[in-house]
Amino acid sequence: MLNSQFTASLQAHAEDKPLLVFLHGFLGAGDDFHTVSKYLPNYNKLFIDLPGHGQSQSIQSTSFSDVCRLIHSTILKCIETQSLSATVPICLVGYSLGARLSMYFLCEYEGADNQLLPLTMAGVVIEGGNFGLCSEHARQDRFANDLAWAYRFKNDDIAEVLGDWYQQPVFSSLNHEQRQDLIAKRSVNLGDKLSHMLMTTSLAHQPNLLPKIQQLRFSNGNRPLYIVGERDTKFTALAQDSNLDFKVIAGAGHNVHKEQPKAFASVLLSYLEQMGLNPKEKLE
Questions:
Q1: Per the structure, how many domains does the chain have?
Q2: Is residue 145 in some structural domain?
Q3: Residue 94 within any structural domain of the chain
C-alpha cells in the first residue's frame, strides 16, 4: 500500500459525490495537487505518493500492473478507513506519469484477474499524459533515452541531473526561477528510487492506450477528459488528434495544475457536474 493523504469534504452530505484520487507526475508527490485542492472544498480527496516518491520512497514496483495494484489497494484502504460507501464513485485525476497510470488502470488493469474488490469508476481527467508509442522503433528510442536518464539519476548528483531534466523541450514554458524552484524541491528525492521507477513505468513498456481510451464510457455516461496547457505544443497536438473531449488552459505549459490551479479546478468542477452526481458549483 502507498502513502496517501485524505482530505474530507467540508460539505456534510458528500456521500454521492465522487472521491477524487490524485496521481502526481514523475519526481512529484501527492501534495503537488494541494494548490488545486482549496478550490474543491466540497469533495473528498485522496492524494497518493507513487512508488519511489514522497513518503512512498521505500516502496518499489516491478510493472505498470504492480503500480496499479498498489493504487487500487490504497484507494480501498481509504474507503475503509474513512467509512465511505463501498460503491463510492471514483474519479482519477492524473498528471503526466500519473495520467499514464490512470489510463493504464482503466484500460488494462481494471477488470483483470486480481483478488482486490472492484472499484466504482466514474471518471478520469488526463493532464498531459502520453497515450503510448505506435512503433517498435519509437519504443526502442524511448527505452534508450529512459535508460540513460535512469543511469544518471542513480549515479550522478541529483541537483545536476534535475538541472538537465528541466531543460527538456516539454518544460520550455518554465522560466529560470521556476526551474530553480523545482530543482530545489525535487532534490529531496532519492536518485536510485527514481531510477527504478523511471524504468518500471517507461513509456517504452506502455501499450498504446488511445484506442481503448477513445472507447471508454463510464456507467454515468461520462467520457474521459484531457487537459493541456496552451504553451505545451506537443501535448496540445496529441489532444487535438485524440478524438477525446479536451480543454486547453490559457497561460499554462505542461504542468497546468501548478501554473493555473484555479483554471484547472474550474475545468475539473465542470467535468464533475456532467456526472450528474452533484449540484452545480462555481468557484468563489
A1: 1
A2: no
A3: yes
Burial 145-184 (b: 16+ CB within 10 A, else e): ebeebbebbbeeebeebbeebbeeebbebbeeebbeebbe
CATH of the domain at 93: 3.40.50.1820
Q: Tens of pLDDT along 224-234?
A: 999 999 999 99
pLDDT given at position 276: 59
Average pLDDT estimate for 215-224: 90
Rounded Cα gap, residues 22 and 31, in angstroms: 9
Question: Is this prediction's pTM over 0.85?
Answer: yes
> Is residue 31 in a domain?
yes
Neighbouring CB atoms inside 10 A of 211's CB total 12
Return d(Cα 151, Cα 148) in angstroms, integer: 5
Q: Is residue 258 part of a domain?
A: yes
Which residue range(s) make up the domain with 210?
Answer: 4-132+206-273
Split at pLDDT 50, 70, 90, the class of 145 is very high
Residue type, 56: S
The CA dihedral of 247, 68, 91, 139, to the nearest 10 degrees, is 10
| Spatial CA neighbour of 129 closest among 151, 149, 102, 110 | 102
